[in-house]
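Let's practice the habit of predicting before peeking. Look at the sequence and jot down your guess about where helices and strands might fall. Then scroll down.
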Amino acid sequence: MDAVDALNEIAFWLERGLAPSFKIQAFRKAAGIIAGLGTSELAARARDGRLKRTKGIGDRTFQVISEALAGDVPEYLSGLRSLGAEPLAPGTRTLLAALRGDLHAHSNWSDGGSTIEAMAAGAKLLGREYLALTDHSPNLKIANGLSAERLLEQLDVVAGINANNGGDFRLLRGIEADILEDGTLDQAPEVLDRLDIVVASVHSKLRADKPTMTRRMLGAIADRHTNVLGHCTGRLVQGNRGTRPPSDFNAKEVFAACAEHNVAVEINARPERQDPPGALIELALDAGCLFSINSDAHAPGQLDFLQYGAERAERHGVPAERIITSWPLDRLLEWAGPRG
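Done guessing? Here is the structure:
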């Protein structure tokens, strides 16, 4: 098999399994080093020892490249594929099979670790029909949020990918807009008008009092551009960033507004978020809300985190027809289109 593909797929499976980032980057770095070499040149360098002496090519990556050059699926990749055949979360097969896409993912244009092309390739590998690229917006400077100019530049990259993907997959134009303290979104309306999907999330002042946070969220939900309310409590339950309690807001009022304004409540599938908590999923369900099971992936392998979200949705009785990421693309885009 192609050596670059083998190295990138190994990185994908390692990301999925939450391997240390240095280990993942070793394979992505090696893929980048050999990406510009033809097969014959790569084989020559492997034979005469130049490849093994190349900075960034270690014993493991050299072995993978050598086995791929020999026409074999590298042993290391084969083992990871076997592990990947096992579900990340139990009891998700029925609902997971109904999911067609993912509306929350980041690239290295903001705080993700991989290119837009790599994120699209990862979604296709998992059989997704669509993926919304939702890099951060300008207020979130710590995450290299996109200015209007950078976002418009990114839309050209997305268009180029869609023009060359064969028509079996669509990368959607999106953003994760920051909900400002006054409830507005931190991107110009005329720019948001050009997007397919807008996820609106709170990222700052998460300890604000209940009335303040409620007003802030209601403002964003009422914005005609907002399609999805992202990780609504902002909580962290595990992971290297530590833990963080959920924000305090009037959940009944917020979910009633989501139902009224046709805004889906995100079931954020990241293991460290698991947001919203189960009781709030059930409250949103009772309020008549739609849901969007999203990976919030920051690397290709994390796109498979949808399994965790599917398991939580299934456990709390969310039916597939209420999950917008189970809808065909045409229906999704019609639903997400311009409002009032």
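How did you do? The longest strand covers residues 170-178.
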